[in-house]
Task: inverse folding
């Protein structure tokens, strides 16, 4: 143990560090303010230079001039003369020579930065340097920057170099190169290298992609030749190239060749070989190809190929595409209903006609009553009654209403599912005309989680060991002395020992936090530098970033749901949709969305990839094409997310709380991180900050602010510490195991393969920590399948969420968090200290197990030992001071470091709020942090009761 003098020196040193950190935080705010003014001045200098021919002032920071010029070039179309002048200026300033040198740096960040700046100063010299680098570059994500830099100044040599670069690359890279080369090939006289017979699979895939994007007659013959080779291989005549490929990759290439030949080069797929193929993917392509011929005879052909399988859905899509070109076909299709079609064909006709049920009803109702009744019956039997009921609710024609009610009445009597649908969605007065009174149905009870005896036994063992290991060890080691000592003497010695152990424990914890802080500082700096070299013209290049489906589960969110959805719809991102899932809310959440966005209930076809609780209805509005609202039976947040996954259409899934608001560029910042490495990104998390105290207007953060309520302020510093110090550090160490459910993004394919979020429906188990559990399960599967992947956290992608302002709600939340952690570690305990899972098994899970789960049990004993030590006056001043240093001073330092990392490159709070937060960072260490740590012990014991209830949190809504 340290001497008293050493302890005093340590205290003074830490106090000095705290003062330095406070000064650094305040000085950094001043620095950022001055930098903003310098940038503004630089903009004026460059505009005057290139539009008024003013000279550049001497001594102005050249790197700021360069970054501002790039920013202006994104907004202003400079003339060739202005660009030439800029090239001369920045050559004289040494910027261009510097980056021509750094383009060959051994450091990836320096190479990417050089490529980024040189792309704005293209001439024969810089272009030649970029092409040379392309030939040498082995790192895929650096090559993406090179392709983007050269896209506006292509020649034959550049194209050839780009094509060679796809060998050994990921599909992610190939798709982006194709988009760039496609624009070059649109020139009719451009030459395309003869790569048809190259054996590399990446070249084959690349060629088919290009041929599908740009029609060239010289592509036809090699495409047909490759089709023959691959079909013979699939028939059993083994081809050495395809034999080396995974079957799924061969099938994907085969499907792609068929699609390209059919859509672009006229291959006829209307034969049994393709329409009756055992591969559903081939059938889908063949059926879709039939929609190219826009005749009613073609509709007959499609109907005749119906087989009653899931492939008939493709036939519905094909016929729909045909009849959209000629409304006469729609009338002719109606006439088919009364012609005794086979059941499979009749179902296709009905599913097609449902898309225009209003026209269908009005067309038939007056002309053929018998056909009208038959048609209504078929619609009801199909189960797609949303449009029918919606039309009946809106209809004002009394005769049409009478005929419709008469037609549906017998089906209501004999079809319980249809009757239930009418009960829920038909206007009460119309429902009464059918002879029924609307019944308020009790919600279906959610199945309870099964008791997990193995988890209970495991947890009891840990609790017993945590509380027994120190006293038992002490008794065994000091057994001899007990004969000559009183119980009080033994107890006092044990109290001293426990306090010494408590000191060691806190030293270890703080050492871990300091290591995380160091990694976080490096990681945050790198993320800011990488974001600075990504322009909008790059990020919004077609296909550069993957498409996203944002899923917002909503349960009793009437206070903030409209603002949250508006916020999501206004995000700055090239390709996204918003799916709001109302999880059986008991308030006006659904009603407010329907009213504000003028939603109508629709029949929306989707594949149930994950089992979930029943979906009641889906709502759409053509004015908001990228908004879908789903109403479902209550099943919990995880079940609602799984429903959203089923309904979603895009490549990545972004789960977000319905009471959260994203900054406009948050998705862009999050997804752009995929351009910073070659591993596949399976999960991404963003920064979370309390919205309490911010001013929100129509879903946008008008002004940022610190919460006025002290409980929310205490949580603000906790969030900063957890995200800015914790998750950045874990991400840098490839050990990140938690992505916040308030703002998390996942690759859809891995979600499906893993079985989605953990629920009773998917895995026969519920959890209240679905966000962390999913990341752990994804990580586990990725290691088990030897997948090269990343789970990342992006600190400058910010999401604002409402935090509890009542102690009762906050404690429920913390109890739930701890129960979730226990449940996850128990469910995935195979990973803990398991080298098979690399950093996740040797660093990530052991940390959560030792410090986040077992830690509170040890801290409880430590606080008790400290209290007893003070009561019995058996502690030395050194121990008491050390404990104070480690609990209070180090806690303050961690909070200050978190604030410094958060505001390193951008101002998050104004000066007044920063000062208040600095005070909060000090105050929270004197009682609040200790109370929360002890309260987590209750969550551990609550886990023994096998409860997976979330509990309710009182919402106050957004400040406007």
Result:
């Amino acid at each position: 143990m340290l001497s008293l003098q050493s302890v005093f020196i340590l205290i003074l040193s830490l106090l000095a560090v705290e003062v330095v950190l406070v000064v650094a935080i305040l000085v950094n705010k001043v620095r950022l303010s001055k930098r903003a003014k310098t940038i503004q001045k630089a903009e004026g200098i460059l505009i005057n230079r290139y539009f008024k021919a003013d000279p550049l002032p001497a001594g102005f920071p050249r790197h700021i001039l360069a970054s501002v010029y790039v920013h202006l070039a994104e907004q202003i179309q400079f003339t060739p003369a202005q660009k030439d002048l800029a090239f001369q200026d920045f050559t004289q300033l040494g910027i261009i020579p510097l980056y021509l040198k750094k383009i060959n740096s051994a450091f990836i960040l320096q190479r990417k930065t050089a490529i980024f700046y040189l792309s704005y100063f293209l001439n024969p010299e810089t272009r030649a340097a970029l092409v040379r680098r392309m030939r040498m570059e082995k790192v895929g994500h650096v090559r993406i920057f090179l392709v983007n830099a050269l896209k506006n100044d292509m020649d034959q040599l550049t194209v050839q170099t780009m094509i060679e670069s796809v060998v050994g690359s990921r599909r992610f890279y190939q798709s982006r190169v194709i988009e760039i080369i496609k624009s070059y090939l649109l020139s009719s006289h451009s030459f395309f290298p003869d790569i048809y017979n190259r054996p590399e699979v990446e070249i084959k895939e690349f060629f088919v992609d290009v041929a599908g994007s740009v029609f060239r007659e010289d592509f036809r013959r090699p495409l047909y030749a490759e089709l023959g080779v691959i079909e013979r291989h699939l028939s059993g005549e083994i081809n050495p190239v395809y034999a080396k490929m995974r079957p799924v990759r061969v099938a994907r290439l085969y499907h792609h060749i068929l699609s390209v030949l059919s859509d672009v080069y006229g291959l006829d797929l209307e034969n049994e070989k393709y329409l009756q193929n055992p591969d559903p993917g081939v059938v889908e392509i063949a059926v879709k190809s039939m929609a190219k011929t826009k005749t009613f005879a073609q509709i007959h052909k499609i109907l005749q190929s119906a087989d009653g399988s899931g492939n008939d859905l493709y036939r519905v899509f094909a016929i729909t595409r045909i009849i959209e070109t000629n409304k006469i076909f729609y009338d002719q299709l109606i006439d088919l209903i009364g012609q005794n079609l086979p059941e499979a064909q009749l179902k296709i006709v009905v599913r097609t006609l449902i898309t225009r049920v209003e026209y269908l009803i009005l067309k038939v109702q007056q002309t053929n009553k018998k056909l009208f009744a038959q048609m209504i019956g078929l619609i009801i039997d199909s189960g797609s009654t949303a449009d029918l009921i919606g039309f009946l609710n809106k209809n004002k024609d009394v005769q049409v209403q009478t005929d419709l009610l008469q037609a549906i009445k017998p089906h209501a009597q004999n079809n319980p599912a249809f009757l239930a649908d009418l009960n829920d969605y038909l206007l009460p007065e119309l429902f009464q005309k059918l002879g029924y009174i609307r019944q308020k149905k009790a919600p279906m009870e959610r199945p309870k989680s099964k008791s997990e005896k193995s988890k209970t036994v495991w947890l009891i063992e840990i609790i017993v060991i945590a509380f027994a290991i120190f006293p038992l060890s002490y008794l065994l080691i000091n057994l001899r002395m007990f004969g000559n000592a009183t119980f009080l003497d033994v107890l006092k010695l044990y109290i001293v020992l426990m306090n010494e152990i408590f000191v060691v424990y806190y030293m270890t914890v703080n050492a871990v936090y300091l290591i995380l802080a160091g990694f976080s500082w490096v990681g945050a700096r790198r993320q800011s530098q990488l974001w600075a070299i990504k322009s909008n013209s790059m990020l919004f290049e077609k296909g550069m970033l993957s498409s996203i489906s944002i899923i917002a589960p909503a349960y009793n969110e009437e206070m903030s749901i409209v603002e949250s959805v508006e916020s999501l719809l206004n995000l700055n991102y090239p390709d996204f949709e918003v799916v709001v899932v109302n999880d059986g809310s008991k308030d006006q959440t659904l009603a407010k969305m329907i009213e504000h966005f003028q939603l109508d209930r629709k029949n929306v076809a989707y594949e149930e990839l994950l089992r979930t609780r029943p979906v009641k209805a889906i709502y759409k509005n053509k004015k908001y094409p990228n908004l879908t609202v789903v109403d479902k039976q209550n099943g919990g947040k995880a079940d609602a997310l799984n429903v959203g996954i089923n309904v979603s259409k895009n490549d990545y899934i972004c789960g977000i709380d319905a009471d959260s608001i994203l900054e406009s560029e948050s998705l862009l910042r999050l997804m752009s991180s995929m351009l910073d490495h070659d591993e596949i990104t399976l999960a991404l998390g963003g920064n979370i900050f309390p919205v309490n105290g911010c001013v929100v207007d129509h879903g946008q953060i008008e002004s940022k602010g610190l919460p006025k309520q002290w409980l929310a302020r205490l949580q603000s510093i906790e969030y900063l510490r957890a995200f800015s110090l914790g998750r950045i550090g874990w991400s840098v160490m490839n050990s990140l195991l938690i992505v916040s459910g308030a703002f998390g993004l996942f690759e859809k394919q891995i979600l499906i393969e893993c079985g989605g979020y953990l629920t009773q429906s998917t895995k026969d188990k519920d959890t209240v920590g679905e966000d962390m559990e999913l990341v752990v399960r994804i990580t586990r599967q990725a290691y088990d399948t030897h997948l090269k992947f990343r789970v990342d956290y992006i600190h400058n992608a910010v999401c604002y969420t409402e935090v509890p302002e009542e102690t009762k709600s906050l404690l429920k939340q913390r109890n739930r968090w701890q129960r979730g952690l226990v449940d996850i570690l128990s469910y995935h305990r195979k990973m803990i200290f398991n080298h098979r899972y690399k950093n996740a098994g040797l660093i990530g899970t052991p940390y959560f197990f030792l410090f986040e789960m077992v830690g509170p049990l040890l801290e409880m004993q430590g606080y008790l030992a400290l209290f007893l030590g003070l009561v019995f006056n058996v502690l030395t001043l050194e121990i008491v001071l050390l404990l104070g240093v480690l609990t209070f001073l180090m806690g303050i330092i961690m909070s200050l470091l978190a604030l410094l990392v958060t505001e390193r490159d951008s101002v998050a709070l104004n000066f007044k709020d920063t000062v208040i937060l600095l005070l909060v960072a000090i105050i929270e260490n004197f009682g609040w942090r200790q109370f929360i740590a002890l309260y987590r012990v209750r969550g551990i014991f609550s886990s023994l009761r096998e409860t997976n209830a979330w509990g309710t949190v009182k919402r106050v809504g957004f400040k406007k």
